[in-house]
Amino acid sequence: MAQKSQIKEPLNDELLRKYVNGCHILHYHGLVDAYGHLSVRVSDDSFLMCRYMAPPMVANREDLWLYKVADGEGVKADTPRGFSERYIHSEVYKAYPGVNAVVHSHSLDVVPFSISPKLPLRACFHMSGFLGTNVPVWDPATEYKKDPTLVQHMLVRDTKMGASLAKALGAGQDGLPKEHVALMRGHGFVCTGTSIEMAIARSVYTAQNARILKDALAIAGKSEDVVVFSEQEAADAGRSTISGAVKPWPLWLAEVESNPLYQNHI
C-alpha cells in the first residue's frame, strides 16, 4: 500500500521557515545559485515552492506559493510566475506519494558524471551510501527521438518530460522511488527525501561524493583503479548515516542564520 504524505495543510510557520532556511542552506553549500530549486509537499494534492526568484533571496511569506501535483500549475489563479521546471517536482510527487521533498540542482561537481558513461556516479564515501552502485542518468534525448518537434533545450518544462524524469528514479516500496537521486544529462540532478532535511542532506552528500570520486580518478589515472562501494557496503552505509539529517541540520541552520545574505522573515 502506497505511503501517504505526512505533511498536511494548513500550512504552518514552522514548515515555511524550514523551507526558506532550506533554500538558503542549498545555496550555502553551492547546490543552487540563481538557478535550481527546492519544494516540499504540503498535502497529497499540492506542494510548495518559491516564486520565480533566486533561492538565496527567498525571505517572505509572499515569496511562497502552492502548486498542484496533478499538473504543476498554481493552486490560485493569481499565482505569479513560477519556475519553468516545476514539473520536475509535480511529477515526482505524482509518481511517488511517499516523497515529501525534492531538490533540483545544477551542481558543477555532479554534472560531469551525467556525461561520462564510463565513470558513473556511485557511492565511494561513507556519508553517501544512499547513492548505491550506479546512479541512473536520465537522458532527454530519449524523448526527443520520440518527438523530433520538441525543443531540445535539455529542460523539463512540461508534465511529459517531468514524468519521463520521474520514471528514471524507478519504483521502490511504500510509495518511494528505488533510487534517491537521478542525474540529468548535461543539466544537473534531482534528489528526493521524506523530509526537507533528508532531501537537502542527500543533495549535499551527493555533491561531496562526486568531488571525492573526481579527485580519486585524478590520483588513480583510470576508473578501474578507483575503489568504490559494493552493493552491500552502499546499502549498509545508506542505512547507517544521515538518518533524518538530525546531526548536520542544526549546524547548517546556524551557518545561514548567522550570514546576513540570508533573510528569513517568517
Automatic annotation (TrEMBL):
InterPro entries: Aldolase_class_II_sugar_metab, Aldolase_II/adducin_N, Aldolase_II/adducin_N_sf. One of its GO terms (biological process) is pentose catabolic process. Gene3D superfamilies: Class II aldolase/adducin N-terminal domain (3.40.225.10). Keywords: Lyase, Metal-binding. The keyword Oxidoreductase does not apply. GO terms for molecular function: aldehyde-lyase activity; metal ion binding. The keyword Lyase applies. SUPFAM superfamilies: AraD/HMP-PK domain-like (SSF53639). One of its GO terms (cellular component) is cytosol. SMART domains: Aldolase_II. This is Class II aldolase/adducin N-terminal domain-containing protein. It comes from Oidiodendron maius (strain Zn). Residues 17-214 form the Class II aldolase/adducin N-terminal domain.
